[in-house]
Design a protein that fits this description.
Elements: H1 3-19, H2 29-41, H3 43-47
Length: about 50
């Protein structure tokens, strides 16, 4: 599994947790999940396409 796949799995888990009625202090799980999804999407650009 590539690093992009790992980032996408982390993003999905965080977004599912954000949909549950769990209170978190200081961090937004939805924003963190969106950040991981964006990181996974742009990983080829960040690393120069050598993935």
């Amino acid at each position: 599994m590539s690093i992009q796949g790992v980032f996408y799995i982390i993003a999905v888990i965080l977004l599912i947790l954000a949909a549950l009625p769990i209170t978190t202090r200081g961090i937004s799980l939805a924003l963190l999940g969106a950040a991981f999804a964006l990181l996974g999407y742009s990983w080829d650009t960040i690393t120069g396409g050598t993935a």
